[in-house]
UniProtKB/TrEMBL annotation:
Residues 292-357 form the GHMP kinase C-terminal domain. GO terms for biological process: galactose metabolic process. GO terms for molecular function: ATP binding; galactokinase activity; magnesium ion binding. The active site is at D176 (proton acceptor). Pathway: Carbohydrate metabolism; galactose metabolism. It comes from Schumannella luteola. It is found in: Cytoplasm. PANTHER family: GALACTOKINASE-RELATED (PTHR10457:SF7), MEVALONATE KINASE/GALACTOKINASE (PTHR10457). Keywords: ATP-binding, Carbohydrate metabolism, Cytoplasm, Galactose metabolism, Kinase, Magnesium, Metal-binding, Nucleotide-binding, Transferase. This is Galactokinase. Residues 12-57 form the Galactokinase N-terminal domain.
């Protein structure tokens, strides 16, 4: 198998005519459970995957930032002295935004050297596996080392989030960066989005003979961002009418009162958040007490809640989940923000190929675009590779 770390060193040499100072990488992620809970100050439980964005970096003797990526023909060039979030756009807003955000978290950008960066990745872009957090986290750990900023991984997650919020302009939470930076082999990152307390929890899928299959539907809905905003607004309305600062302050005992107080649609949105938070906690507890084969029902229930209460699924995702469930999966759910993207299924290893064939067949029968299915393994987070 070719190693993209060799490719990236060669590409860096072709780009600059010299060897890089080092090579760093960071993974994409899959969210195992906990959807739309992050901005309600609730719980999420993603894991880092074995698809990575790799960067080769070398310091310069001037103040220029020069960034190239196998992803694009464009070479991005920027001066450290006029690095502001408003000046950034396109794909290079991710890496350059991280350089700017490091300054917001204490790096002395007036005193650091410019750098050349070459980027390669095998994280599919826009498939819901957070290629954005992978690029942000890889650049964050590399610059943190080379510029000797000394920030810990939790703070680097905030740096990546700030780059995405302010330089890219996407109002996302901190889940993706936390998974990409804090992930460990065979483990997930259980994150409390209120305290930002993160715990690495062993998943043990491989040892239990299980695989996680991602089914990328390739569906991209125009109203994904509108739908996201509407769901956020419903959650805020529900919290306001129930007199709490966020839905995190409610649990299943509050459901009868919520049903009496709220209109039907807002109630169902709120019920998804309350029950989803509980399912994340139950998943962590079940893993510890009974092991990974016992979490399938929680994944199934999470999907039903997103389909019926939060209403963010689409027919392709429902089909992927149903076909997985009737072809050996212990549990399956759509993952990510919804209105398209990917589903995941927890599958005994011996059923993986059967399930892939069944999914392809069912999608063809329904006249849907052929999906891409592949196995992901819970893997180590961002690191220096060489
Ligand atoms: P995802 O679900 O993959 O995170 P996003 O839209 O959040 O989708 O982020 C994808 C964007 O991140 C790309 O359009 C590009 O601008 C940037 N990006 C991701 N990976 C790379 C890469 N290897 N090189 C350059 N830009 C990248
Ligand atoms: Mg993203």
């Amino acid at each position: 198998m070719t190693d993209i770390r060799d490719d990236v060193a060669d590409a860096f040499f072709a780009f600059t005519g010299r060897e890089p100072d080092g090579i760093w990488s960071a993974p994409g992620r899959v969210n195992l459970i906990g959807e739309h809970t992050d901005y309600n100050e609730g719980f999420v439980f993603p894991f880092a995957i074995d698809r990575r964005t790799v960067i080769a970096l070398g310091a310069r003797d001037d103040r220029k930032l020069r960034i190239a990526s196998a992803f694009s023909e464009e070479l991005a060039e920027h001066d450290l002295d006029d690095l502001t979030p408003d000046a950034l756009s396109g794909w290079s807003a991710y890496p350059l935004g991280v350089a700017w955000a490091l300054g917001q978290f204490g790096a002395d950008l007036a005193a650091v050297p410019g750098v050349d960066i070459f980027i390669e990745s095998d994280v599919p872009v826009g498939a819901g596996l957070s290629s954005s957090a992978a690029i942000e986290s890889a650049v964050a750990v590399a610059l943190n080392d080379v510029w000797q900023v000394g920030l810990d991984l939790e703070t680097l997650a905030k740096v990546g989030q700030k780059a995405e919020n302010d330089a890219v302009g996407a109002p996302t939470g901190i889940m993706d960066q936390s998974a990409s930076l804090l992930g460990q082999t065979d483990s997930g990152v259980f994150l409390d989005c209120r305290s930002l307390d993160a715990q690495v929890i062993r998943l043990g899928f491989a040892e239990a003979g299980l695989a996680v299959v991602v089914i990328d539907t390739h569906v991209e809905h125009e109203h994904a961002s509108g739908g996201y905003r509407e769901r956020r607004a419903s959650c805020e309305k529900g919290a306001r009418e129930l007199g709490v600062s966020s839905l995190r302050d409610l649990d299943e005992d509050d459901l009868p009162r919520a049903q009496q107080t709220l209109d039907d649609e807002t109630f169902r949105r709120v019920r998804h958040i309350i029950t989803e938070n509980q399912r994340v906690l139950d998943t962590v507890r079940t893993l510890r007490e009974l092991g990974p084969r016992a979490i399938g029902d929680l994944l199934d229930a999470s999907h039903r809640s997103m389909r019926d209460d939060f209403e963010i699924s689409v027919p392709e995702l429902d089909l992927a989940v149903e076909v997985a469930q009737s072809n050996g999966a212990l549990g399956a759910r759509m993952t990510g923000g919804g209105f398209g993207g990917s589903a995941i299924a927890l599958v005994p290893l011996e059923s993986v190929s059967l399930l892939q064939v069944a999914i392809d067949g069912a999608f063809a029968e329904h006249g849907f675009t052929a999906p891409t299915t592949f196995v992901v393994r819970p893997s180590i987070g961002a690191q220096r590779d060489r």
